[in-house]
Design goal:
Blueprint: H1 5-9, H2 14-22, E1 29-30, H3 42-53, H4 66-80, E2 89-92, H5 94-106, E3 112-117, H6 122-129, E4 133-138, H7 148-154, E5 159-165, H8 177-190, E6 193-197, E7 221-226, E8 239-242, H9 245-258, H10 264-275, H11 277-299, E9 306-307, E10 315-319, H12 327-338, E11 340-341, E12 343-344, E13 355-359, H13 364-379
Parallel strand pairs: 1-11, 3-4, 3-5, 5-6, 6-7
Antiparallel strand pairs: 2-8, 7-8, 9-10, 10-13, 12-13
Helix pairs in contact: 3-10, 4-10, 5-6, 11-13
């Protein structure tokens, strides 16, 4: 079979690779994926059961069920200070599809996209799927905040989009207001679109979340979010994109030709979630806050690893450079010797090969056992 050049250039994700490798062990402690072990709340599940019982199982509009789009518009207007309506919202098969479709809407072959890193690997891969070039603006400053002078130096006549992810995966960094204003000013000066990935905006612990939507013209801003993390609905595959009505209308036509629509059953469940958002989000956020403390306490004092305690999300981005191992070798060794699965830092940018990511998405006892095994590995390295 002769495959396209594009298909050969797209790589699978390292997180998924280590997930597959971990499944060969019966006793693995899996810190690799951002997939919480917390069940989807009962009220959300009941909304899905009700939908099935009432036989509401047919296709929906490509942009999503109107009631859900209206509820998202209300929720986001209150949460992020955005003045949006249903016509500003399209519901997608997870936030990943939303980002893919939005790139398809704006990019032509040869265009460039500046992605502030570290970032999750599907983002640059989706740029490549458009025949465009991802340009990584990788950050090593305190707290992984981007150096905007460096970002500016990467902009040229082919640059179309700047992608930001706050709160950040994998670092848990939350961008402060002044930085968001500076990014907005730079993008506006250069006439660029801004893609704002806000999937972890409900899982913020120590600092307030601010959306760049307060500072950037709506016609050049696309915002992405998802039900996966906020409501523990990863497998339901419901995300959404917010933009100007003409953009959303065209994106819905793109969706019509890719997935037709997101699952109707999942959309009705999502409607219950967003309509009673704080009832569900608050206990989930509190659980992850407690789990953060559990993992940080359990890792305390382990020689050869350093980490920045995250302000948001559910990841520890951990510096293992003192071991002398690259991130893949470290992860392979820990998995083989201790049956602990981690995600190599290389998954989040070529410059982060001295890091690994741990997701604190596991119950406390499991998390402590994983930390004990990591300690044993480091002490015998």
């Amino acid at each position: 079979m002769i495959l396209s050049d594009l298909s050969w250039n797209i790589r699978g994700t390292l997180g998924r690779k280590f997930l597959a490798l971990a499944q060969q062990y019966d006793d693995v402690v899996d810190f690799s994926l951002g997939d919480p072990d917390i069940p989807t709340p009962d009220g959300i599940c009941e909304a899905a059961y009700k939908c099935i019982r009432e036989h509401r199982t047919r296709y929906t509009a490509s942009a999503g069920i109107l009631q859900l789009r209206e509820a998202i518009a209300t929720y986001e207007s209150q949460k992020a200070g955005m003045d949006i309506k249903a016509e500003n919202v399209a519901v997608t098969v997870g936030a990943t599809e939303a980002i893919h479709l939005a790139f398809r809407m704006l990019l032509n072959p040869g265009d460039e996209v500046i992605i502030i890193g570290p970032t999750w690997s599907q983002c640059p891969n989706n740029v490549l799927l458009c025949g465009a070039k991802p340009v990584m603006a990788e950050t090593f400053t305190e707290g992984f905040l981007p150096d905007l002078a460096y970002v500016r130096s990467l902009i040229n006549h082919r640059t179309r989009i700047i992608v930001i992810n706050s709160p950040n995966n994998p670092t848990g960094t939350v961008y402060p207001v002044e930085l968001l204003k500076e990014i907005a000013n730079l993008a506006e000066e250069k006439g660029l679109y801004v893609f704002s990935d806000e999937v972890y905006s409900t899982l913020v612990y120590d600092k307030p979340f601010h959306s760049i939507s307060a500072f950037y013209p709506a016609e050049h801003l696309i915002v992405f979010n998802s039900f996966s993390k906020a409501f523990c609905m990863t497998g339901w595959r419901v995300g959404y994109v917010i933009g100007e009505p003409h953009f959303i209308k065209r994106l819905a036509k793109m969706q019509e030709n890719v997935a037709v629509c997101a699952s109707g059953i999942s959309q009705w469940a999502a409607l219950e979630a967003v309509t009673h958002a704080e009832n569900y989000i608050t206990p989930i956020r509190n659980t992850f806050l407690a789990r953060r403390k559990t993992l940080v306490d359990a890792l305390e004092g382990i020689p050869g690893i350093r980490y920045h305690i995250p302000d948001a999300a559910f990841y520890l981005f951990t510096d293992i450079s003192a071991t002398g191992l690259d991130s893949r070798s470290f992860c392979f060794s820990v998995l083989e010797k201790e049956h602990v699965s981690l995600t190599p830092g290389l998954a989040f940018g070529d410059s982060f090969d001295g890091y690994v990511r741990l997701a604190f998405t596991l119950e406390d006892d499991v998390s402590r056992e994983g930390a004990r095994r990591i300690r044993h590995f480091m002490e015998n390295l």
